[in-house]
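This section describes the prediction task in plain terms. A model, or a person checking by hand, is given the sequence of a single protein chain and must write out its three-dimensional structure as a string of tokens. No templates, partner chains or ligands are provided. The sample shown here is typical of the held-out split.
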Amino acid sequence: MKIKLLLAAFVLGTLFNFGFAQRGSDGTVTLLYWQAVSILNPYLSGGTKDIYGSSVVIEPLANYDENGVLTPKLAAEIPTLENGGVSEDLMSITWKLRDDIVWSDGTPFTSADVVFTGQYCMNDEAGCVGRNFFDDISSIEALDDHTVKISFSVPKPFPYAAFVSAQSPVLQKAQFENCLGLAAQECTEQNFGPIGTGPFVVADFRANDVVTYEANPNYREADKPAFQTVIIKGGGDAVSAARAVFQTGEADWAWNLQISPEIQAELESAGLGQFEVSYGTSVERILVNFTNPDPALGDDRSEYMDGNNPHPFLSDINVRKALSMAIDREALVEIGYGQLGTTTCNVLPAPPIYSSTANDDCLVQDIEGAKSLLEESGWVDSNGDGIREKDGMELRVLYQTSTNAVRQDFQAIIKEWWREIGVEAELRNIDAGTFFGNDPGSPDTYGKFYADLEMYTSSMSGLDPEPYMNNWTCAEISARANQWLGSNNNRYCNADYDALADQLAQTAVLEDRAAIIQQMNDILMQDYVMLPLVYRGDASARLNNLMGTRKGSWDSELWNIADWYREE
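The expected answer:
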């Protein structure tokens, strides 16, 4: 009998080790996000680290899993044509909500919270970063406490944008109802400590430093989460974060590991951890500022001003093209990413149906061709100082990015290539927490873009590129009027591009949508709105005993943190 009892205990213990442990029994899990979390409201920050940091607290109706499959979260099921959730005319989608969910304060989650969140983001004065997720919505209505109907002004063949993914979660109406419009930015308590339905609650938030979360006592699954405490630490850099996992074991997880191939090999040999790499649409790119960032302009610096404030020389497509031609993208992959990256000439490299082959000439560096192009365009070095000029305007650029060893290596080598063609670059790197932050008072955010060129990575959420490609419409231009939270940091405005965006919103057939999306990508690439450099694998690292992680690139990498546990 004693042996049987021991066997039973062993079996139960094994089950518990595979994710069925008592809530909080695995203690603390430490995550290093060397780009520190600045805010816990993703609607007020487009920064990935802020979206991920909030995703353990506030949830959408559905997430994308590691394979890009739409998975219910606050919804009871995914609405489809087959189950009647999507109307035959594609003009509406009806979400049935789970009826067993409460907010972390114990109050019921209802359709009123969903309707309110739509009102919150669709308010034109709010400066909502996720506004494009609500494009073409004519109404959001609660049919009952657990049913929400979203109606569209045009047919939506892919109606899964609003309230889907960590970029578009549901806010609690009771907490945020006094934060509509201009008041959104003033609601510090709400933005730093949202009440959520997720597996954790905010225990302590120190902006641009450390966030501490505790297990949500009202979480819907009684045995989850396995961890009692989650700590997301900011600061440092990618290499030190990786070493804390691979070499010292001081951290359980390290995010966004842009580290050289040599260091990758060194770390893996230590044996304490392993890389988790997924591929989505992450492209490291250089953005071109289409407006004038001259500090002498004061408040009009980098403002679009209805097209009346153009950049003094980057408005010349031949200058933009020459900058691109001078870059050796294969060398950048080898220097900066190794096995974690590959070359691309598109801003949208995946899924395959959307990937264009019309821009592949960027794969071959052409220094001499770039020189000739500038020469033919009237940009010459008349005084022999190595810098080309035209009409008294020299080709000098301020090229900024976040502080990161790989990015600084990229800056240094690209600067040399540009010098070869007669362009002088001043390099600037900014603390990542500041650069990707949302402080309207800071001159150093990537949204303000007070430089000629800036470099970073962004990607789309989910499998439909429409919201992502809408980031470069005229309506999304980042400006003082929207607290520099518009997604079009380039300040690029093209009527043809906008027309394609409108056409895409009304196109139902997948193949036709793919053709339009490729055209949109090609406009951006052939107008040199940005210079794609590397198609990045999204690399994080975990300790060997951290289990249950299902990292993907289509949503927050923490989308299933309720399932994480530690294997002893």
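For orientation: Confidence is low (pLDDT under 50) at residues 1-20.
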